[in-house]
Specification:
The structure is a single chain. The strands form six sheets. The chain has a four-stranded antiparallel sheet with strand order 1-24-23-22, with no helix packed on it. Strands 2-3-4-5 form a four-stranded antiparallel sheet, with no helix packed on it. A four-stranded antiparallel sheet has the order 6-7-8-9, with no helix packed on it. The protein starts with a helix and ends with a strand. The longest helix is centred in the N-terminal third of the chain and has 28 residues. It has two domains: about 45 residues, no CATH class; about 250 residues, 6 Propeller (Neuraminidase). The chain is built from three helices and 24 strands. The protein has about 375 residues and is α+β, with helices and mostly antiparallel strands. This is TRIM2_3. Keywords: Repeat. One of its GO terms (biological process) is protein polyubiquitination. GO terms for molecular function: ubiquitin protein ligase activity; zinc ion binding. It comes from Mytilus coruscus (Sea mussel).
């Protein structure tokens, strides 16, 4: 009906227009205008014929008969005082998020890359002018933290420029990142791990242990800490022990990775890189031509990149421990490298020198 009323309004407008044209226009203008109106009238005529043929002009009477059952239901509803209760139950879900970025395999690939095709290129060397270095990590936002043996914890830009020294007292040794704003640091002399908020620069928690603690990592919402030379312990963020793995090392457990219930750790004095399972059983040991292996990390395939400190080399060991390749030799300009860290989910990172003079930025290629 609305459609028909609209058409009627258009016809009335045409009539008014016709009277205007006839009274105010020349004969030629009147002829042209009338011819145009005749065409529109013809269109409206066809429209009316279509209405008659397709039934749009017919009148419909819609009736609804109410069922007797509806009356019975309505009468029962009137006597009800309540329709029942709505209960909301909240259940905590463990998302099992892995936010580790410290010396761990980021993504295990089913295909093992051919380490013979791997190359490492030193892009630039950045002056640090720091004291002796104990640890270094690349943060999630690509900034860098360097820990000095005298306890200073330094924050650097992604280009290696010093931003600040965090105001944390004590002799720090190792550092790992828990989330975007939080890091954890070991203090062997205090047998403690300090959890530190980088935004407001405050220590939010201190976890006290029964042994001196050195190397530190974060995996599957758990802290993984090296205790002296014979134990790697997993803790929750409250400091409760989740798992203890006994290991054999001739040197203090400074550097290791924990992934897929395996621990890979460097033994500087024993000149070895060892891989053990979650019970401490040896999976493999690599000792070929090593001289003071120190810092290590893993690439996305699980291959282990090792700093061989005394020889001044960077070596990659296949994740099964069977093969190796020298990526950077001493002749290429490295002297006493100490730590290595890849940027999260990237093939570039940094090598830090033992005496804190330089930070070398590198790119890693799988060929």
């Amino acid at each position: 009906m609305t459609e028909i009323e609209g058409k009627q309004k258009k016809i009335q407008e045409m009539q008014d227009h016709l009277h205007t044209v006839i009274s105010n226009s020349s004969k030629l203008q009147s002829f042209l205008a009338v011819h145009q109106i005749e065409q529109q009238v013809h269109q409206w005529q066809r429209y009316v014929e279509d209405l008659e043929s397709d039934g749009r002009a017919k009148e419909f009477d819609i009736k609804m008969k109410q069922s007797d059952e509806i009356e019975i239901i309505l009468s029962k509803l009137e006597s009800l005082e309540t329709l029942g209760e709505v209960m909301v139950v909240k259940t905590n879900i463990d998302l099992n998020r892995d936010t580790s970025v410290r010396r761990k395999a980021q993504v295990e690939s089913r295909e093992q890359s051919n380490i013979n095709n791997m190359t490492m290129n030193i892009e630039t060397k950045i002056d640090l002018n720091m004291n002796k270095i104990s640890d270094m990590i690349c943060l999630m936002d690509e900034r860098v933290i360097v820990v000095e043996w005298d306890g200073k914890v330094n924050l650097l830009t992604s280009n290696g420029k010093l931003v600040k020294q965090f105001p944390i007292s004590g002799y720090a040794v190792s550092v790992t990142q828990i989330n975007q704003n939080t890091i954890a640091i070991t203090y062997p002399d205090k047998k403690a791990i300090k959890i530190f908020n980088m935004d407001n620069e405050t220590v939010t928690k201190v976890i006290t242990l029964d042994k001196a603690c050195f190397g530190l990592s974060f995996s599957n919402n758990s802290l993984v800490v090296g205790l002296k030379s014979d134990e790697i312990r997993m803790l929750d963020l409250e400091g409760n022990t989740l798992k203890s793995i006994e290991v054999q090392s001739k040197s203090t457990l400074f550097h290791f990775v924990y992934c897929n219930d395996r621990v890979i750790y460097s033994d500087c004095v024993g000149n070895a890189v060892n891989c053990v399972d979650g019970s401490g059983n040896k999976i493999w040991q690599y000792k070929q031509d090593l001289s003071g292996p120190w810092g290590l990390c893993t690439d996305t395939y699980g291959n282990i990149i090792v700093v061989d400190c005394n020889s001044g080399r960077i070596i990659v060991i296949s994740k099964d421990g069977q093969n190796s390749k020298v990526l950077i030799s001493k002749e290429e300009g490295l002297k006493n490298p100490k730590c290595v860290s890849l940027k999260p989910n990237e093939s570039s990172g940094y090598i830090c020198y033992e005496h804190g003079k330089y930070l070398a930025k590198f790119n890693l290629s799988s060929g």
